[in-house]
């Protein structure tokens, strides 16, 4: 059904919809379609593309560094998603209670989010290298140092963000349900696991979704903290793809194939995970 | 929820105070090291800038000079403000058009915008930077247009959600009174959308101000650098990093952000909560 005003508004498409649409075509739709096409081509500059079928994908899967980066990103995503959500949930839970100074604490925890990834990377490079200097080592000594460095950095950055989302969720929990539980003599852990967590499922969905996609897409922090050292062993997916494009001549097509795989991975993970957690949501 | 006092409330305050101090420590450490001579920074990051290690503002003058920091700051500001204004104006209009027209074209457009939100940047990185180059969008102004294109998804998504909650009857009666379509949008719809406009502005500004790859790949780096790009340039190719200049630049990059945060904290927190609908 189209309303009267809808008909009048439709005529104004050139003013209202066209600017965004034009930018969207240039900034997203065309690059995306070209990207998919080029993943089946051999090319160096876009204009000299030559169709090669699935060769790029075959090369991507044979690339040991790519598989390593995939493992690295997956491990990083799993670890950070768990740490960030547990910590953010616990902090949010305590800070919704009447604790003196809780507003200041919230502000402090949130602050790192506003700082860009490159800057964050160098802040933590200074701190972690300073600590490791006691053993005459640095972050680039071993890949696992870079891994845990990134875990610390990403947790520090995102706990505050997820905390804000959890606080908003907790503040809108229905008080009557919680009061009823208290009257019925539910223990603290019963209230937490049988009532609060199930009711918080929408927030948990959102936060874990954000953590998972952020984990896979991580690039700036990775670049600044270790730049993949030693020998690309602390390199995540996003970084491996970028380096394949710009650091290895003759590999542009493979880079694009990896990017398509990366997109499929992010999309699938997002969809599955969204399905899983939304199905656990309950109504109060 | 239950905002009753927990047991041992004072102990919790002490605990959280300690964690908060640990939380700001990395930033304080950068600040302290920005006054130290570069050799001392890597040798002992935790010592105070005293005696021979103290160099006053030397790191700052050197850092500002090598990175041309104020120019980068200006370009970052221009790109962020320009892109945010463009995004707010164009996507709010587009979202209203999509909801009110609601025909196949509008629905297709909306689906495309939703799709945009799950595509990682690496997917379009190479082709987008080539296209931007060909179309001469490699200037700060051109970059604003690119940001409108790549960042449209989330903004349109949030705005359509808001417009759906506004009853069309208000607009219809204004139309009967003879108001033109643009006038209805700017005088009736925009004031209602104001809180969400602020939220979207904050979300986009946080993203664009800190973005590294898109400006790095599209801008003509000989002429324009953003702060993130300039800081990364300090690291250079294979040579060692000038840690003194680096610390000074980090401080210069962080201070304005924290000032902005302290002023606009309320809106920033609200913006984050609006953005969380993304899941």
Task: Give the amount of beta strand of chain B, in percent.
Answer: under 5%
Q: So what's the CATH class of one domain in chain B?
A: Mainly Alpha
CATH architectural type of the largest domain in chain A: Orthogonal Bundle
The CATH homologous superfamily of the largest domain in chain A: MetI-like
Low-confidence stretches of chain A: none
In the CATH hierarchy, the third-tier topology of one domain in chain B is known as: MetI-like fold
SSE topology string of chain A: HHHEEHHHHHHHHHHH
Oligomer: heterodimer
By DSSP, the count of extended strands of chain B is 0
Shape of chain B: globular
Uncertain parts of chain B: none
Average pLDDT of chain A, rounded to a whole number, is 89
Structurally, how many domains make up the residues of chain A? 2
Greatest interface by residues involved: A-B, 103 and 105 residues
Structural class by SSE content of chain A: mainly alpha
Explain how this protein is built.
The complex is a heterodimer of chains A (284) and B (279). Helix content of chain A is 74%, strand content 1%. Chain A has helices at 4-10, 13-16, 18-38, 55-62, 64-95, 102-110, 117-132, 143-171, 175-183, 188-199, 201-217, 220-225, 237-247, 252-279, and strands spanning 41-42, 50-51. Chain A is built from 14 helices and 2 strands, in the order H-H-H-E-E-H-H-H-H-H-H-H-H-H-H-H. With 284 residues, chain A is mainly α. The longest helix of chain A is centred in the first third of the chain and has 32 residues, at 64-95. Chain A has a two-stranded antiparallel ribbon. Chain A folds into 2 domains: 4-55, no CATH class; 56-279, MetI-like (MetI-like fold, Orthogonal Bundle), CATH 1.10.3720.10. Chain B is 77% helix and 0% strand. Chain B starts with 8 loop residues before the first helix and ends with a helix. The mean pLDDT of chain B is 89. Chain B has a domain at 71-225 and 256-278: MetI-like (MetI-like fold). Chain B has helices at 9-33, 38-43, 58-67, 69-101, 104-118, 121-134, 140-164, 169-176, 181-210, 213-218, 227-235, 243-275. Chain B has 12 helices and no strands. The interface between A and B is large, with 103 and 105 residues. Chain B: It is found in: Cell membrane.
């Amino acid at each position: 059904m189209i309303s009267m005003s809808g008909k009048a508004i439709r005529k104004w498409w050139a003013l209202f919809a066209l600017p965004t649409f034009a930018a969207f075509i240039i900034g997203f739709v065309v690059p995306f379609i070209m990207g998919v096409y080029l993943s089946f081509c051999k090319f160096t500059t876009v204009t000299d593309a030559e169709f090669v079928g699935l060769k790029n994908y075959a090369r991507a899967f044979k690339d040991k560094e790519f598989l390593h980066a995939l493992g690295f990103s997956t491990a990083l995503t799993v670890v950070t998603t768990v740490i960030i959500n547990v910590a953010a949930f616990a902090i949010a839970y305590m800070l919704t209670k009447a604790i003196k100074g809780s507003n200041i604490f919230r502000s402090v925890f949130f602050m790192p989010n506003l700082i860009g990834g490159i800057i964050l990377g160098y802040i933590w490079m200074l701190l972690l290298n300073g600590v490791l200097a006691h053993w005459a080592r640095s972050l680039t000594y071993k890949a696992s140092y870079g891994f845990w460095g990134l875990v610390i950095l990403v947790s520090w950055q995102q706990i505050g963000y997820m905390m804000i989302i959890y606080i908003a969720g907790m503040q809108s929990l229905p008080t009557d349900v919680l009061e009823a539980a208290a009257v019925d003599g539910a223990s603290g852990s019963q209230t937490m696991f049988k009532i609060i967590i199930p009711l918080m499922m929408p927030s948990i969905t959102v936060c874990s979704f954000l953590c998972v996609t952020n984990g896979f897409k991580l690039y700036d922090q990775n670049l600044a903290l270790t730049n993949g050292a030693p020998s690309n062993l602390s390199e995540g997916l996003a970084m491996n793809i970028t380096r394949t494009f710009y650091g290895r001549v003759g590999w542009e097509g493979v880079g694009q194939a990896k990017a398509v795989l990366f997109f499929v991975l992010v999309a699938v993970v997002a969809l599955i995970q969204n399905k899983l957690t939304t199905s656990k949501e309950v109504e109060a | 929820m239950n905002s009753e006092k927990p047991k041992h409330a004072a102990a919790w305050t002490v605990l959280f105070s300690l964690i908060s101090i640990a939380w700001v420590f990395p930033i304080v450490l950068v600040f302290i090291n920005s006054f130290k001579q570069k050799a001392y920074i890597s040798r002992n990051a935790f010592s105070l800038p005293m005696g021979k290690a103290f160099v006053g503002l030397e790191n700052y003058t050197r850092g500002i000079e090598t990175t041309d920091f104020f120019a980068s700051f200006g370009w970052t500001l221009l790109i962020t403000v320009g892109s945010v204004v463009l995004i707010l104006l164009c996507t709010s209009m587009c979202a209203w058009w999509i909801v009110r027209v609601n025909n196949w074209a509008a629905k297709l457009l909306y689906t495309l915008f939703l799709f945009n939100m799950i595509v990682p940047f690496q997917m379009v990185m190479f082709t987008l930077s080539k296209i931007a180059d060909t179309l001469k969008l490699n200037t700060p102004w051109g970059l604003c247009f690119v940001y409108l294109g790549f960042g449209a998804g989330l903004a349109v998504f949030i705005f359509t959600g808001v417009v759906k909650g506004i009853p069309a009857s208000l607009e219809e009666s204004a139309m009967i009174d003879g108001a033109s379509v643009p006038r209805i949008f700017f005088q009736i719809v925009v004031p209602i959308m104001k809180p969400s406009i602020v939220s979207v502005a904050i979300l986009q500004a946080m993203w664009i101000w800190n973005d590294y790859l898109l400006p790095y790949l599209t801008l003509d780096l000989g002429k324009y650098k953003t702060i993130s790009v300039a800081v990364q340039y300090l690291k250079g190719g294979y040579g060692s990093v000038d840690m003194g200049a680096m610390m000074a630049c980090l401080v210069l990059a962080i201070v304005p952000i924290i000032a902005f945060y302290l002023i606009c904290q309320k809106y920033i927190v609200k913006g984050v909560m609006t953005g969380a609908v993304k899941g």
